Amino acid sequence: MFRKLPVADQEQVREALAAAEDDDADIPESHLNILREREARYAAGLSKDIPAEEAFRQIMETLRREQADTP
User: Fold this and answer.
1) Nearest CA to 2 among 54, 43, 57, 56?
2) How far apart are CA 36 and CA 38, in angstroms?
């Protein structure tokens, strides 16, 4: 998906990520491990990208189910 962005947008993302590197200390190591796992699965072709709208729909469904299960 990143490669489909215009070059100027890719550079903007790179700059934002570089600026945010200092903030990594606030992210728990367990979360970083999950991200690394997911990135590796995607790079290996074991995971596919989905449109943001579909991801949001899935997240909302999960939240609704969790709220329904909460007493």
Assistant:
1) 43
2) 5
Burial string for 40-64 (b: 16+ CB within 10 Å, else e) reads eeeeeeeeeeeeeeeeeeeeeeeee
Query: Phi-psi bin for 8: left (phi > 0), alpha (psi -120 to 50), beta?
Result: alpha
Which residues in the chain show pLDDT less than 50?
none
- Looking at residue 3, the DSSP 8-state letter turns out to be G
Identify whether the C-beta of residue 13 lies closer than 8 Å to the C-beta of residue 2: yes
Angle at 57 between CA 5 and CA 21, to 5 degrees: 45
CA distances from 68 to 48, 57, 58, 71 (A): 29, 16, 15, 8
